[in-house]
Write a structure and sequence with these properties.
Length: about 190
């Protein structure tokens, strides 16, 4: 398969369809080398990754559940358990954030977040090349200090998402993609 065919074939796999094997720690380091090649104005290297596997995923689930209970005191026990379960839907989770350098004279925080997003995309492509699958999961936990703080992030850090990684349990239907020409304007 050539590079373009590979890139055109990558799509996210729902976290509930990700099973073992997940990449080993050694494989993750190799895969992260692709993230280090993301566009990065000022060579800030703002991206950070926290590897969470095994029982530590349950600890992450406890953080999600506790944060939801604090964020939404009216949340039902079922909703809290659902939040807890989101951390264990894949054998490996990488928390991804931008370690923001505030008041940088040339690189504003948005560029640091964009660079981190580009690093995630490179990593997703590399996972696909190696036969693994993944999905970047975002949502309310990414904006919740009650999730960020227990993971060691500071208020200035931007939690970009949780990358769920594993092997696709089954082939997911190819998603219909929009026509690229509909998104291109000429000036």
């Amino acid at each position: 398969m050539d590079a373009m065919e590979c890139l055109m074939g990558r799509q996210s796999t729902p976290a509930g369809l990700l099973v073992e094997p997940a990449p080993s720690d050694e494989e993750i380091l190799t895969l992260l080398e692709t993230a280090m090649r993301a566009p990065d104005h000022g060579a800030m290297r703002p991206w950070r990754f926290l590897l969470i596997r095994g029982d530590r995923r349950q600890d992450l689930g406890d953080i999600f559940a506790s944060a939801l209970a604090q964020r939404e005191p009216e949340a039902s026990p079922d909703e809290i358990e659902k939040a807890r379960g989101k951390a264990v839907r894949a054998p490996l989770v990488l928390a991804v954030w931008a370690d923001i350098v505030e008041d940088h004279p040339k690189v504003p925080p948005i560029e640091q977040v964009v660079a981190t997003g580009a690093a995630v995309q490179n990593l997703l492509n590399a996972l696909h090349v190696q036969g693994y699958a993944g999905i970047l999961v975002t949502g309310a936990p990414c904006y919740d200090e009650n999730v960020k703080a227990p993971l060691g992030l500071t208020p200035k850090d931007v939690l970009v998402g949780f990358l769920h990684i594993g092997t696709a349990k089954s082939t997911t239907p190819t998603k219909k993609r929009p026509n690229a020409a509909d998104y291109l304007q000429t000036w």
